[in-house]
Structure formats: C-alpha cells, structure tokens
Specification:
The protein is of the alpha+beta class. The protein has four domains: 88 residues, Rossmann fold (3-Layer(aba) Sandwich), CATH 3.40.50.20; 66 residues, Dna Ligase, domain 1 (2-Layer Sandwich), CATH 3.30.1490; 107 residues, 2-Layer Sandwich (D-amino Acid Aminotransferase, Chain A, domain 1); 70 residues. It has twelve helices and 20 strands. The strands form four sheets. Strands 10, 11, 12, 13, 14, 15, 16, 18 and 19 form a nine-stranded antiparallel β-sheet that branches. Strands 3-2-1-4-5 form a five-stranded parallel β-sheet, with helices on both faces. Strands 6-9-7-8 form a four-stranded antiparallel β-sheet, covered by helices on one side. It is globular and about 55 Å long. It starts with a strand and ends with a strand. The structure holds adenosine-5'-triphosphate and magnesium ion (MG). Adenosine-5'-triphosphate binds next to strand 9, strand 13 and strand 15.
C-alpha cells in the first residue's frame, strides 16, 4: 500500500484523497486547521503550519511517505527540494512545486523556454511600480508574486490607482517577499485550462479544453469542452507539453491560457488538479483527480473519454461580514430535483465572506445557474 502525505486539505485535496483511496492508498491529510475537507475522508490527519520547515521535515521523517502531494502553494517548498533528495517522491517534482509557487519564477522560466506571455515587469516598491506601469502601459494588472484565487490583484486603468494597487498587493500577498508583477492587460476572447498529464511510462496526454470565467481573479464557473480553433489548441498542447516537461515528474497539471482573436498566450500553471477542472467529475470517465492519482502511481491511463458535456459553478458564502461563522445550506433538495444536477459540498467547518463552500455540476449553464439560485447559505445559531 502506498503512503501519501497530502499537504493542503481543501476541496481539491478531498477529491484527490477519494481517488487515491479507491486505488488502495493510505492518505495522511495535513492543513493548518482541523476538520478540513480532505481530513474528513483521509486515513489520518495532522494539523500544522506547512510554512514551518522544521515541522514539515519532522513529519516526513516520522511518516516516511512514498509520495508527498502538495495541494496548495503555501508550503515551505525549498524544504521539498531537500526531502526529494532523501528519495521521497514530491508530486509532480520538487522543482515544479518550487517554480510554480511564485509567479515570477515560472514566468521567467516560460520566457527562457521561448513561450509567449503577456508583457510584464516586476516592482519591489511604489517607485518601481510607478515606473513599471509606465513601461507596460495602461490598462494593466498588478499582482503579488505570491498569492492565489485573485487575492491582492488590481486592474489599473489610470496612474492615480497605483498607490492603491500597491497597498492591495502588499496587504494580500502570501509569504515574505515584497514583490509584485505588473502584467499587460490581455483583452482575451476566452480563457482555458488545459489539463495536462505527464506519465512515467507513456507520453503526455490532455483533457479536452475547459473554458472558464473568473471574477476579480477568482474562479466562478467553468465548462467542458470549450470549442477553440484546432490550430490554437495544438499550439496550446505544444506549450503545455514543453513547460511541463521542463518542470518534470508525473502527475496532472492545470495549464492556463488566454485566447485572443489570433493567438494563444500562456498565463500560469498549477502542478496539480485545478479548481476549474472540477467539471471533469461530471464530464469524464476519469476525473482530474483520478488522472492525478493514476499518473502518480504510474498506473496506465488507457484513454480519457468525455462522457457528456458539463458545466460547474461555485457556491460561495456571500453578503456576510464576520469571520468563522457556523452555517447551513438550504435548497439543496430543490436544486437536486433539476435535470442531471449534481453537487459537491466541501464540508468546511466554518464560513466567511467569499469562502468557497461547494460546487454545482450540471449539463449546461442554464440549469447550473438555476440550481445555484435555489441554494442558500444561512448563518447557524448555536443556541
Ligand atoms: N494579464 C491579464 N490580462 C487579462 N486578464 C488577466 C490577466 N492576468 C489575470 N487575469 C484574470 O485574472 C484571473 C486570475 O489570474 P491568475 O490566474 O494570474 O491569478 P491566480 O490568483 O493564480 O488565480 P487562480 O489561483 O484562481 O488561478 C485570470 O484567470 C484572468 O481572468
Ligand atoms: Mg489562475
């Protein structure tokens, strides 16, 4: 039985754990708070701060897992390079996890590989930011080099917004490096995630492209397949293959692209299942989580079949102010009465404003949105 140490126990980790358990693995789920989604389905769980290098190393020495599977970016990734040297497989590779943790490292690598991206500049203070924006031009997007789900991002249209963008980025960044990236705003027609699977004994394969919509940089809805021009799709596949090959290891990657009228532009990538890819739980014979598990374990993936078209949209706590409140859902029965609707509720113990608590899976946008309109999140009184 293979032992997996899962670092990060959110909704993606939960589904991955279910897939790994189905293949007979032992999973130890870690996160900084108890009862996190993946902990509810894992064999065991450990609560600790994964940015604490010593605690991470001690846990690895104690557990001696076959695989370390990072689910989030906020991990002491430098430590993973040392752990890999001890002969433990970091998924997909310590290099991949390390380079993608920060936007600058992976962006610079993409450029070295000759991959087209939005024009960009870095800044370490307000003065540099001002200059960077003058070079990149307006409109542009300012992002902390370390953050996810759109946190700390500002779309800038006028020079007056620069101080606010700096404040937003530095207040909402993760980690301790005060550095932002200024990116040219790409007026894309659509954006896609190309789920890319690197395997040990076979060639790199892809899922049909997933289209998605983000609001303030955070994932709201996705669908599969997204119909894009075949030439652009094969270009995207070439880029995805090139960059994942450079990162190395086995597993599933979520490679994000912007699609413009005449070209495809690489945006970023996750060396793990992607939130927009939750739709594959509805559409494919093997979900992105099943594919990740198989690739890690070096099991064959005979084929990826799309069984039906699908749509997914997130259920978030909205319109609440305070933090960490108990909550309950209502309207689930009504939503499930609709044609072919399925739901995943993550089981997060507490809610706060904008926190993602579930996802609706359906055959199209219309039905998915109808289901969403029937589901409510209510604060629960504990007395
Ligand atoms: N240069 C850009 N031009 C236009 N839109 C952009 C640009 N950069 C980011 N966006 C928009 O913001 C979204 C989030 O950006 P990005 O993927 O870089 O951040 P993120 O915080 O890592 O998000 P996530 O963790 O959800 O993937 C993109 O999917 C896109 O909709
Ligand atoms: Mg993204």
């Amino acid at each position: 039985m293979k032992k997996i140490l899962l670092l990060g126990s959110g909704e993606l980790g939960k589904e991955f754990t279910i897939s790994a358990k189905r293949l007979g693995c032992e999973v130890i789920a870690c996160d900084k708070y108890p009862y996190a989604p993946a902990m509810q389905v894992a064999d065991r769980s450990v609560v600790f701060d994964m940015l604490d290098a010593k605690k991470l190393t001690n846990l690895v020495d104690e557990e001696k897992p076959d695989f370390i599977v990072p689910e989030i970016e906020a991990i002491r990734t430098e430590e993973l390079l040392n752990i890999e040297k001890k002969g433990i497989t970091v998924v997909p590779s310590a290099r991949a996890v390390n380079l993608t943790m920060n936007r600058d490292a992976i962006r610079d690598r993409a450029i070295e590989l000759g991959i087209k991206t939005a024009q960009y500049k870095y800044a370490h203070n307000l003065d540099e930011l001002d200059k960077a924006i003058k070079t990149v031009g307006l409109p542009c997007i300012v992002k902390p080099v370390m953050s996810s789900s759109g946190k700390g991002q500002t779309l800038i249209k006028t020079q007056e917004q620069v101080p606010l963008a700096w404040e937003n980025a530095t207040k909402n960044m993760r980690g301790d490096r005060v550095k932002v990236i200024v990116e040219e705003f790409i007026n894309f027609i659509s954006e896609i995630t190309l789920l890319t699977i690197r395997q040990s004994n076979s060639s790199t394969i892809f899922c049909p492209p997933i289209g998605h919509q983000q609001e303030q940089g955070d994932y709201i809805e996705s669908w599969q397949p997204e119909n894009i021009n075949q030439n652009l799709l094969s270009k995207a596949k070439d880029i995805a293959e090139k960059i994942t090959k450079d990162l190395g290891g086995n597993g599933l990657f979520g490679v994000e692209f912007f699609i413009t009228t005449e070209d495809i532009i690489f945006s970023e990538l996750s060396p793990r299942p992607h939130d927009t890819g939750m739709v594959t739980m509805y559409t494919q014979n093997l979900s992105e989580f099943d594919l990740h598990a198989r690739a890690i374990l070096s099991y064959p993936i005979n084929n990826i079949l799309m069984l039906r078209e699908g749509y997914s949209t997130v259920i978030k706590a909205n319109g609440f102010e305070d933090k960490n409140f108990d909550y309950k859902f209502s309207g689930i029965e009504k939503a499930l009465e609709l044609d072919d609707v399925d739901i995943r509720l993550f089981g997060k113990p507490k809610a706060w404003n904008n926190r993602r608590l579930g996802v609706i899976l359906s055959k199209n946008r219309e039905i998915g949105q109808k289901a969403k309109s029937l589901i409510f999140i209510n604060k629960k009184n504990n007395y």
